[in-house]
Amino acid sequence: MELVKYLKSADLKSWLQELARENRVFAPRNEGDSVIFAPFDPEQEIAIVHPATLPPKKTVFPQSEKLVDFTYSKDPENLSRIMIDGKEVLPEGTAVVFGGRPCDVRGFTMFDRVYLAEKSTDIYYQARRENTTFITLACEKPETTCFCHWVDSGPTDATGSDVLATVVDGGYVLEALSDKGSKLLTSTLLENGESRKDEARKAHEKAAELLQDAPDLSGAPKKVLQVFDTMEFWEEAAAKCLSCGACAYLCPSCYCFNITDETIGMKGTRIRSWDNCMSAQFTMEASGHNPRPTKAHRLRNRVGHKFSYYPDIHDGVISCCGCGRCIKSCPVGTDIREIVLQAIEYEPAVGEEQADEQ
Amino acid sequence: MKFQEELKDSIRKALPDLDVVLGWCGSFDPLHATPHFIRREEDIDKLEISPLSVHNLATYLPGLRGKKVGIVVKGCDSRSVVELLQENLINREDITIFGFPCTGVVDQAKIKKALGHAGNVRTCDISDSAIVIQTEDKAHSLTLTQMLADKCRTCRYPDAIISDYFVGDKIGEPAPLETDYAALEAFESLSVPERFGYWLKELDRCIRCYACRSACPLCVCRDHCAAESRDPHWLSQENNVRDKVMFQVIHAYHMAGRCTECGECQRACPVDIPVLMLKQKMNREIRDIFQYEAGVDPEATPPLLSFNMEEENITEKEW
Amino acid sequence: MPVLKGKELRIVGFLCNWCSYGGADTAGVGRFNQPTDLRIIRVPCSGRIDPLFVVKALMNGADGVLVSGCHPRDCHYAEGNFYARRRLEIMQRFLPVLGYEAERFEYTWVSASEGQRWQQVVASFTDQIHKLGPAPKIIGPQAADTLNQMAAAL
Amino acid sequence: MNNKNLYLPEMATINEVIEETANIMTFRVILNNPDAMENFSFEPGQVGQLSSFGTGEATFVINSPPTRKEYLQFSVMRAGEVTSKLHSLKPGDQVGVRAPLGNYFPYEDMKGKDILFIGGGIGMAPLRTLLLYMLDNRKDYGKITLLYGARSPVDMAFNYEVSSWLERDDLETHLTIDAEFEGWPHTVGLIPNVLLDIAPSPENCVAVTCGPPIMIKFTLQALEKLGFTDEQIVTTLEKRMKCGVGLCGRCNIGTSYVCMDGPVFTYAQLKELPNEL
Fold it and tell me: Which CATH number among 2.40.440.10, 3.40.50.80, 3.40.50.2000, 3.40.350.10 corresponds to the domain D114-236?
């Protein structure tokens, strides 16, 4: 059932407009000096030449979303008694996300293992995930901050995507990778793409050739855990960290959240919003105790979760897709690659080893 | 930089008495620098001072209180140090300041724009007048003055205001390349709905990472910020532009009479939101009313912590 | 003074407990006719007012904000209104950069005995806000209008 | 896949409020949906998210035993925003309940063994569930000993039950307070010291302990001194939680999520975890 189509560059907007009749369509566009995913607007240029500043994470995992709407009302029989009614607010409609990169979309597979787990399925996430179709754009060349191939992926890895689009002369080769993807490729604007498959294949090979050698991270889960108690390691790694949340919010695979109540008058909402483990409040307990009191503790959790805890639980899969946004957009250039490699290479000082043995 | 070796010598001399010296070194690509924490002798060699030394390292000082810290400062950074001293947020005797004559730092956003894309920089050579950047397919020669951060184009304090070591020759009072607040004034000439709409549009893409706050050397509440407080409940966690604008107003107001316009808030923003303008507006009004400038005199009393019975430049409304 | 014609707008007033709240009371007791757009929040002192209250009120749907305290030198806490004057003046000058007319916010001084002055202040400020019309709304049912207006302006 | 909404609480009504101490209140709540109440089942040690809409949710152990089904009981110590709000509630007020969550005490494995409960302050709440459950199934367990300590007599929650526990001859109860207090007929001394004085035998015994971190630290040392092995010691942990179902990412200690893999851990399990309590 392999379905391959070809779309002329000139027809891209028309095709997205067709798709927008039945779906909410998101595509990257310029906003100020940044490129972000926004509802497709035929009046605006689609910015797909380079990876977007923000991944399309919010299309499935919004920056904030309603979980429960609640209303207060007075009990007619006892006016001093306030009754509360809570109603779930579930996401509706279907969406198409065009122009994400392989790393961006692969990020959702990190969510899937957690949010779609049998024992605790998150129906909000599930509804969006199942109703969103990803047309992913294969990368032509890596940026300096790209390291998808370090984490068992690559510039044309379509894991998690429904259609893989490859730039070829004059347009795009579109390969359906799922039933959802096939269903999108029915437009009359699309030509049969069989004859251009080779061209796409060649583009994929070229992209792979441009990658530099990747270090072996298979030892990372164990090694990162080994330095857990070496606070000097984390203090040095976190020294320049500002403890903001940019890395987490730009990360396609960071999935932590907060739940808060917001009320106006007799109505309110329980919302879920992005949260990040670099924030001091994240683990701050009401008693004032904080299990991760400094940025070193918090960075340890961030790196530990991605490169040790998550792979330990989920068959060795590193919860990082190598998009490099956390490096590129970090206000102080913290490089997670460097930290992981340092952890792998870390040799405890001799005195310390002795202390451990005692 | 000519004085870089001299600076390294000064640091080498001072390091034995210090826990750490803050400087800059190379980063993930040749176009970027990153803060460098010099703890050991061998770290000194990595120090690099250049127009890429954009970060205001004073941001780290309050967090290092209690330690003996050396810090390399540009003129603008030194104003943040002065302000922190003025507010008793750091102890002068714990800080060793290394100054140098700063000829300006780049604005990465301008370079990105000039290159079209800055993701594949191979080399970057900076001379007194030009930045030559080699990307994977092309060499770009950019005029340094055009790539300078706006704050450098209007700079009046190129030499550190206070320092314990100063390397190189002081520049003195430079001729600014631009007049202060020209962009702000252009913005103010827009219509009311245009101004209102501008912020809604620009801040809509804010992801509330609060890098603007975390990078700010004078946002010293750190883990107790109004942004996340539930009591008082200034902001909701909803993704709405109202709360994003409100946070920027809170930031600007909390900086009133304190902000030195180092521009870290805007530089840190991962989605390039021009948030510095709000602080500039606040500063210009404070300058006009109180003839006050933050971060130039550790002994000065900030305008909002004092008053006059009769305010010379405040005209109250007649009813 | 006649009540202003047309739709009532929403004006938030922050009044200090010692002077202006008393002044408003005096105006009421004296039956001085006033427009009814103003909603009063009593605070201990004008020095208690964080200028951010003003912005918060505007962003949450107020069309105008009025702050009134004791006359300079008459502050119950001696100096509260002197500090307030500096802070509020700065905020008033700041508002235009956000896209709010500076005139949407005023601060003034009314003593407990100045019922007449209070009437004058309320009437004049209400009139001022009506001339400006409703402030743009960021949230609530009218938010869509703002976005359209904004799109048109840009 | 099940399609249950993980975040939608069952609405419940507060049936009774008991002021335990100056900062601890106990709430007995009944789910508004009679079927849900009827079919509600949980294991001793499991927790629930109790919420006051408009303020938020917080995690508390269900401290009524599963064998007593007329209400769900939560004891709440005032500390933050949610607990302060809960403390203002009265019978008849509405709350949300998401429960049961987490694991539970291995009461099946404890059958036939002697049980030693060591509770400090509000830490008595999770122990109460298991204690009452065991008292309701008394013949399944060997000797049961309770050591319950609080700062002072007025800080002792569940006072009204403690007297009946003292009277039982199938339960050995020791009460202790930190410092001398006029009219206090029981022991005075810190829990770990009193524990060493009582010196219960570790043989065929399981120690179940909960309390403030500092108490736990020294109690564990005392238990080790008495010869208890790590496997013989069971405790419960507490972390800031939001989702309660292993997603939101704040309660993990390395790979273990306190909300899913806990809150009940043996000391042996705790020692396996990275040190991030």
Answer: 3.40.50.80
